[in-house]
Amino acid sequence: MLYHLLYPLHDVISFLNVFKYITFRAACACVTAFLIVLVFGPVVIRKLTELKVGQNIRDKEESVKLYDLHKQKQNTPTMGGLLVLLALMLATILWSDLTNTYVLLAMLSTVWLGFFGFADDYLKLKSKSSRGLGARAKLLGQIALGLFLGAALFLDGHNTTKLDIPFFKDIVVDLGPWYLFFIVLVIAGSSNAVNLTDGLDGLAIGSVIMVAFTFAALCYVSGNAKFANYLFIPYIPAGAELTIFCAAILGASLGFLWFNCYPASVFMGDVGSLALGGALGTVAVLIKKELLLGIVGGVFVIEVLSVMLQVGSFKLRKKRIFKIAPLHHHFQFLGWSETKVIVRFWILAALFALLTLVTLKIR
Fold this sequence. Notes:
By secondary structure, this protein is mainly alpha-helical. The protein has helices at residues 2-6, 22-50, 64-70, 81-95, 101-127, 135-156, 179-197, 203-222, 225-231, 242-260, 270-286, 290-296, 298-317, 327-333, 338-359; strands at residues 162-164, 172-174.
């Protein structure tokens, strides 16, 4: 909004020419989102507490040991993801070019999945259990979003069905019509992966910070012709504006971590984790960095794989590979403190982010 209001006046006030630069607006979006969460965080937490919007810990019947480890978190305010999404949306609206189709698609994806996350959280609170919206309903919502996103990109005419392969500059894979199903897989996978990781104080949001920072850089170079040509990556002109969207995710996540770090004063809830995961997946699809998402989001991938391996092993062999899944709880069962698990997973997330940026040069 500020871009549309102030940049046209740069001929009169030369300073306003700064609004032309994506780096300036991205930095402003990051700070704006951070301050929104920081300022309104205490108010939202207090209101959630008054409304008794508290977290329901897994039932004792599911896992007595896990309940004992987390029982002190019972009734901690949840659905704090609403504040994250509000900050993300406001910062993006304030600082981005709202005529950019990719920005609008990213915002729409975030709001859509946030709606399903909100429904899940609401049903958990209503039933006073850890069971909310069914997995089938959430999956249908993710599939619908993936199909819509794919259709919008094909109609836009600027998207191809080719996959850019990390580490190689001359190798691409054309999925043809199967690319539409691949988009669905990326959206559903990223959304559910962040949701599964959101089990310890600050673990998911800290990892989201690493991914958002990395994707802000990827959006910037993908949308810059000189950088894209130099790095042998697909040039996506409209993708540059997504730098601001990713910067807003970064700022909002940093602000939320202020309150969500151990011991958490508020939890994100599915309204935050599903939406943020889907938002990052959408950005990956829009700038043709779908496979890089699997590297930069390595922590999320590991968490999902731990669940898949656990379920598969138990069904086929009646034996468990891990003491419990997702993986972060397995390490708790091994005796690691919660803070140790969180920080070590953050370290892994930072290393995955660094490796992702390295792939730009090793091609």
